[in-house]
Amino acid sequence: MNKKLKVTAIIGLAAMVLGGATMVIGYFGNHGKLDSIILNQGFKIQKIEKKTRNITAFKDLKISSNDVDLQVVQGSKFKLTTSLDQTDTFKVTQKDGQLQIDSTNSVTRHGLSFSNSQRKIIVTVPHDTKLENIKIKTFDGTISLKNITATKRVEINQTDGGVILKNVNLSDLNVVNKDSGTRVEGGQISNATFKNIDGNFLAIGTTFTGTNKITLDDGEVYLNELKQNLEISADVNDGSIAHNGKAVGNDNQDSDSSHGIIGASQENKLAVQVADGSISISDTKKDEDY
Hints:
The protein is mainly beta. The chain is 11% helix and 56% strand. The chain is built from two helices and 25 strands. The strands form two sheets. It has a 22-stranded mixed β-sheet that branches. The protein has a three-stranded antiparallel β-sheet with strand order 2-1-9.
């Protein structure tokens, strides 16, 4: 067989293999039978293992992970529930009031994975529990905190997955979110810094107290139905600012930058800075809330 025929044969074989894998994914995925297919020194079908792990009470939470959705929620007791691939590396450590979780999906780092079952880590804390420090760093997975209170430092570092904060009470909060959006719904946020790199920011019905800042490199900011007694300072380098549908900002036709102040408060301030995008502030809920 000459060189051109060999190349053609290899390409054809590769196309057949990928085509077969696609058929398997389509069939089993639609019938709910496939957990994951992994291309890593050959195709392998893996199963997602669901486990409930016993943990004791803790005040500090630290999580490091990749390719997994993280949820921290309220419940009846302290509990750790996982849905992970058999190949994942997972470690839980409890010491001196801290719960530390380290989870790594090594397959997607060194191979190709097609999955129908989403990896999840769910940390449940009792309804009357107030955490102190939370530190979460993850890649390629959504971070969701719901009905959680933390009285000290909260740090969230997320790449390519999204951050959702719903009905939380957090102070001294620092969120860095890359290549995905941030959604804050209800709750109370105090002395917070949000930085979105290439992603939108949405806040609905949230109370901001103290000094807060939202910074976007490229994206849209929607602030809807925020609680009163708040002063919002809005700045856009290349874009627009609107309050209840009306333009706010400079009238300089030679400049794309805009600045506006909405509301007044000596105690509670929110600075919003967008390099390339827009800021929309509404006293009521809007369509983008849903």
